[in-house]
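Exam prep: given the inputs below (a chain plus pyridoxal-5'-phosphate), describe the expected output before reading on.
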Amino acid sequence: MSALLFRSTNGQSPAVNLREALLAGQAPDRGLYFPEKFPRLTPDDIAAFAQLPYREVAFRVLRKFTKGIISDDALTAMCRKAYDFGVPVEVIHHHVYLMRLDQGPTASFKDFAAQMMAQMFGRFLQQDGQQVTVLTATSGDTGAAVAHAFHKVPGVRVIVLFPIGEVSLSQRKLMTSLKDNIRTVAIDGKFDDCQAMVKRAFADPALNHIKLSSANSINIGRLLPQSVYYFYAASRVAQPGEPVVFSVPSGNFGNMMGAVVAREMGLPVKKIIAPVNDNDAFPKFLASGVYQKISPSRNSVSNAMNVGHPSNLARLVAVYGGQMDETGKIHQQPDLAAIRRDIFSSSISDDRTRASLRDFWNKYQILLEPHGVVAWQGFLDWLAVEPLGSSPAVIVETANPAKFPEEVEKVVGWPPDVPAAMTAAIALPEDFDRMDADYEKFKAYLLTKHV
Ligand SMILES: *Cc1c(COP(=O)(O)O)cnc(C)c1O
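Solution:
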């Protein structure tokens, strides 16, 4: 059985299979890996999802990518281990729904990808006894999800860099209370500094002997599992074949690319709404065709979306026949008219985010948090220009309100309930290292901690 191949968005590196793409993280030419050709599910395959639990939908979607690389039995077991939590899809009103992706061990949607990715790493490394170091820069949620997912996975050492002043206490404790193979480093700097240090480490030939990999959303292993919940949601809210509208709050555009992948695999999608916070490079690009990254990135209440240059745009541009390199330079313009037909985006300021959080609570008595409400407000912005008709719409909530207690309390007057998994992590003692935003120091750290 021949395995699916993944090519680089920069077009210079050879195509590789899933195993190589996952372990490398980034392609040698600094592009992002992407399927050479999308595997398809038939309308009957998709219609069958309506009767299936989440882990089984995950198996049927992901096996299209793992064919020839991971056996069906192994993949079934991996899906069972990765997805032992709920995926509620609730009614907001009429045929408008809220999908909560916040029930995993660290209460953000990042758990969906991190859990499966850790299963895959564990399996590939066990097969040939390799050791890798997974480097991750985080503004909060990725680090927690990756640390939990990779905790005690044999063959993997994880190093998480986070900006000391930009991560909430509960976000921090979810990563620093694990030990064993997980190291967390607080950087005296911004998220951009953490990201730059990680990128330099990848490009540093003096570190070649340490097998470095990335768990950031440049890794194809992050992206593929994020296509599953769009199939799942559609199976719960739509008739077979009926197109769905999805609204996905976007920062690095990995989550919304999951919806694009699902559509390319055959899921009927009417529109993908990808609203952002003040980091509005994407809606400006949609409007003008000119891409200009935002540097430094702008801070906002939806802090997990403070991304000035979303790396997954290179993949989006590739789907529409264009080419964007890792710096954001466009070498070939994608089919902009087609992107505009399929995707809508608007920028939601902090003022609108807070007002919308309050309005939503007052109107529906459902609690959101600053990221999910960006999806809601973006959906309202879209409704102002295009009719929903009778189509079902799914708003994606990406974190638990308990991760943002201050913002939520300001709106409803009391602190949100804290999920049990978070309470447990918060009670444990922390352990992390601290460092200046200085690459040479970080390099020395990597070299000494490696042995
Ligand atoms: C990471 C994150 C996002 C943004 O997701 P992208 O895939 O980077 O677009 C949105 N909400 C929350 C809570 C997050 O943690």
